[in-house]
Amino acid sequence: MIAERALESLNYSLIKGRACRIMWSQRDPALRKTGNGNIFIKNLDPTIDNKALHDTFSAFGNILSCKIAQDEEGKSKGYGFVHYETEEAADNAIKHVNGMLLNDRKV
């Protein structure tokens, strides 16, 4: 499918110096607002970007949204969010990544 190929090959590529994020359209706002499947990751190394976060957490389920919090200058604040399609995927990610070392920092 063309959309899947675009998502895989262009996600996080640079456009005018900024990384673009490509996600599947989620028309049901109730899914976003419930918070189900949404996890918070803290103590991230500043070198971890959106793509690295996505690559790390995509092994546990279908990601709807993934983002590193940034300051006004575009530098990482050391935390981020991953929103999974299912609560089970989020629970699985927490089970496997909580306390793990990413770039020598325990998350």
Main traits of this protein?
three-stranded antiparallel β-sheet, about 110 residues
Total number of strands? 7
CA radius of gyration: 14 Å
- Poorly predicted runs are none
Indicate the proportion of strand residues: 25-35%
> How do the strands of the widest beta sheet line up side by side?
3-5-4
Q: What is the ordering of alpha helices and beta strands? A: HEEHEHEEHEE
N- to C-terminal separation?
A: 35 Å
Number of continuous helical runs: 4
- The secondary structure category is alpha+beta
The average pLDDT value, as a whole number, equals 86
Overall body shape: globular
Helix percent band: 25-40%
Main β sheet profile: 3 strands, antiparallel
